Amino acid sequence: MNIFLKTTNSLAMVIAITSFAGCAEASENKQILKKSEIEKIVKAYLLDNPEIIRDALVLLDEKEDRLSIQNVASELRSDARDYSIGNKKAKVTIVEFFDYNCGFCKKSTAWVQEIMAKYPKDVRVVFKELPILDRRTRTSRNAAKAALAAHKQGKYSEMHFALMGGTSLTSDFIEATAKKMGLNMKKFNADLKNEDLNTHLEDTMYLASRIPGLTGTPFFIINDQFLASGDTVKLQAMLDEELSN
Asked: Which pLDDT value is given to residue 64?
């Protein structure tokens, strides 16, 4: 918002300078500035204040990101395979892309739990598994599949928060967690091998690739706004703004 105001004010100044120059010229010589003269004034101002161009490009990137989010809104919010909690007609829908090995995802987990408890009618949360760290960790994808397999037994939330709280997401940890939750282990292990889970994850990866600003996790979308960060202060401010609209 500050960038927008700064850019708008700067561009307004350019227009004001140009208009003033044009009026002065007209009053003294009864002539209006030529196009080339106006361009020269604007160019000189931009050269003296090049940050205007940078700020405009930032605004352009943000606009394109918002448009990309709007273009995939249905896939973001209405994929029946995803776990979500909250009223489907809630005033605010939050979509979170995350990796269970992402430290910043783990740090923002408490905030997600708080808003789920605080706004059960006004906020809906959609969870998007995005195991982008799997090449390094070798456990992110299995953890994501474990959450989706638990979802088939109505225990997604329990598995999700257990994985977010875990420090070593090994197969032994996942199995022990599943048993502690009382899952049917035969079904759980069979679901882990179900190719449908891989398809679901690949579809989410493809969806993420269509949002230019989504370059890492966590990535939060709050209605049409987004934040590529786990900064809970900023997230809460965004949420408050959407709830007040």
From this structure: 64
